[in-house]
Amino acid sequence: MKQTLLLASFAAGLLVAAPASAEPSMSGMGMSHAHGGMGHHMDAMGGDSHFMTLLRSANLTPQQHAQMRQILKNEKAQMKSINESFHALHEQIADKLLAPGNVTAADLAPLEQKANRYQEQIGRNMIDTAIAIRSILTPEQISRLAQVHQQLQSLHEQIHNILGSDADDSADQ
């Protein structure tokens, strides 16, 4: 029972995430809006766009903007086929879940394993991209990002303390 509920939650998450991850979102990313790009599919995969948002406070030089655009362009090219395959897998899961008859966890297990492999690839790619972007930053910019990150963490903590645990429960639903 618990495994079926977990698998159903997983499948529902895949179905919800499919439209967001179907297309990489690095295209057309304006450097003044660095919160786009990689962050969008990070959200779809369960992560966040925190790093890309932090970059807005880094005061990148024009050369760094150009380097970041190239890194994101390369990332987009690498992720295109993975995202397309991941989207096709979401469709396969939806087809199985919405087909007549019974569906068991065993029926979806091979698709779940494949989804896990795609998520691992996506996660590795996101880390590689973040490291590549970090490598173009100066020590001062990295220090600035660390400071902004700490301030955002503090604000998050304050919000949590004000709203209490009910806010976390409603966000999970």
How is the biggest beta sheet arranged?
none
- Please identify the structural class as seen in this structure: mainly alpha
Q: What is the overall shape?
A: flat
Count of individual beta strands? 0
Number of domains: 2
Helix content: over 70%
- The ordered H/E elements are HHHHHHH
Instruction: Give the DSSP E fraction (strand runs of 2 or more residues).
Output: under 5%
Low-confidence stretches: 1-48
- What do the pLDDT scores average to? 75
Q: Quaternary status of these chains?
A: single chain
Q: How large is the radius of gyration? A: 19 Å
Annotation field: number of helices: 7
Determine the N-to-C terminus distance.
Answer: 20 Å
Give me a quick take on this structure.
The chain is mainly α. It is 77% helix and 0% strand.
Describe the overall structure.
The chain has 173 residues and is mainly alpha-helical. The protein folds into two domains: 2-136, no CATH class; 138-173. 77% of the residues lie in helices and 0% in strands. The chain has seven helices and no strands. α1 (2-21) packs across α4. The chain is flat and about 60 Å long.
